[in-house]
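Bit of a strange request maybe. I'm writing a small parser for structure token strings and I need a real example to test against, not something I typed by hand. Could someone generate the tokens for this chain?
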Amino acid sequence: MLSVGLTGGIGSGKSAVAARLAGHGAVVIDSDRLAREVVAAGTDGHRAVVAAFGERVLAADGELDRAALGGIVFADATARSRLEEIIHPRVRARSAELAAAAPPDAVLVNDVPLLVEVGLAPAYHLVVVVSAAAGVRVDRLVRHRAMTAEQAQQRIDAQVDDERRQAAADVLLDNNGPLTDLHAAVDALWTDRLVPYEHNVRQRRHAARPQPVSLVEPDPTWPAQYARLAARIRHALRPAEPRIDHIGSTAVPGLAAKDIIDIQLGVDTDAADPLAGPEAAELVDRLSGAGFPPLPGQWWDTPHGPGQPPDRWPKLLHGNADPGRPVNLHVRVAGSPGWRYALLMRDHLRADPARVAEYLAVKRGLAAQGLPIEAYAAAKEPWFDEEHRLAEEWAEATGWRP
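Reply from user aminoacidic:
Good idea to test on real output. This should exercise your parser:
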């Protein structure tokens, strides 16, 4: 099962995206609808709201007068928090029930208006954010929800700002234009990403990796992409709090690279050994469930530096089930030579622009040969032997520590 978080500011068109995905066969859990259900007349949620705000929020039929309640909570942050404390736990419990009842091959779309505000993004395989300019949203709310412009702006202002919401987005759907454009974007997302992603998660298989090597110009969003991936990994492994680092070329500002995010997960010896028993099996299971299945085969790093034992440096290597974001997740023993080496190389390159330029020239030359990834990586090893020597000298001179 693939779990997708869908969010967007009020009036952005999130409901239109949810409806389109449902039409494709997604199982949609609508938190807005659940928020109404859990406080319907006769429920304990209804009784809690009346106890908190009084009978002034009741309509003639005994249901909540949503306009009256909205007028209270959108004008008073304390009142809004009090209402959220009543509604949110009940919505989460009901959402969990519906998710458990979904078929194992479902694309489960969680339509959550306050997904960012309550910190739910790391719990999903993918977060989709629907975006529209504030003026467009106000106009829609006035035309379709009978609000005044002032009421519409008040509700927009009560939510998290667009910048923070978009920072949580793995996929950003622009809905400033006609509905046909939005539908086309949703259709492409379903076919090209969600369907294969679900299949890969269920089969515990990584997405196809690009071949041959192709370099792209530096992407300023790589660190933010890493941060979202790391948060997902951390959520999957809780309550443990392992060290997770952004490594490799995408972690070095200004360096062209393969569009693959390299992540290092530091673990204890048992978990990093694929033959170590239940600890390793649990680690692999949790990472696979979060969308990071192991790549088949045995994996290791080539030792660098004098005095290193001739044996290879072992590791586990996981990929990403998401076809839209290639990932190398290197699982290494924290404190091991391979773990330290990855951090040293990254930090030295960050500190030495001249070496970055030299490395880029090497990368471009090899990429121009059209090598497959394995051959490309092997061809860089002589450069890294020299880089390791220089990096160790830099570490000694600066007092660097991992």
